[in-house]
């Protein structure tokens, strides 16, 4: 039961953290320090929490070998891959390339990093509601 509470708490915390880099990648901050605080640090926090969730689900796999646990493992792995993709697509560019990519788009979105982070956030929200719905039906 403590594991379920921990996973629920982490997923709820992740929901609030996901919004910061998604909003920042959509309307890219001009200053490097703002990009660091609003994009890089939340992405790292998201990755740490997702890796911890993956570890918790892996421990569930040892005790409960059913389809739901394997699906949860796959969903978390997909989220991790999408966040890493967004991280590398943004932070692999130099300062000039970031500013050029942001100014070339009318919405100042940094593509494809924004799309990858948005996809990961949507997968997270979908899985959050499915998990909460399943837990309320089970308990």
User: Between the first and last Cα atoms, what is the distance in angstroms?
Assistant: 11 Å
Total number of helical segments?
A: 5
* Number of individual domains: 1
How much of the sequence lies in strands comes to under 5%
Helix content: over 70%
> What is the β-strand count?
0
Query: How confident is the prediction overall: mean pLDDT?
Result: 86
Tell me the structural class.
mainly alpha
The rounded Rg comes to 17 Å
Order of helices and strands: HHHHH
**Principal-axes shape call:** elongated
Q: Which runs of at least 5 residues are low in confidence (pLDDT < 50)?
A: none
* Biggest sheet record: none
Commentary on this structure:
This protein has 139 residues and is an all-alpha fold. It has one domain (2-138). Helices cover 85% and strands 0% of the residues. The protein has helices at residues 2-26, 32-63, 67-91, 95-104, 113-138. Helix 1 (2-26) packs antiparallel against helix 2 (32-63), helix 1 runs antiparallel to helix 5 (113-138) and helix 3 (67-91) packs antiparallel against helix 5 (113-138). The radius of gyration is 17 Å and the shape is elongated.
Reconstruct the topology from this structure:
Blueprint: H1 2-26, H2 32-63, H3 67-91, H4 95-104, H5 113-138
Entry keywords:
139 residues; mainly alpha; 5 helices; 85% helix
How is this structure best summarized?
With 139 residues, this protein is mainly α.
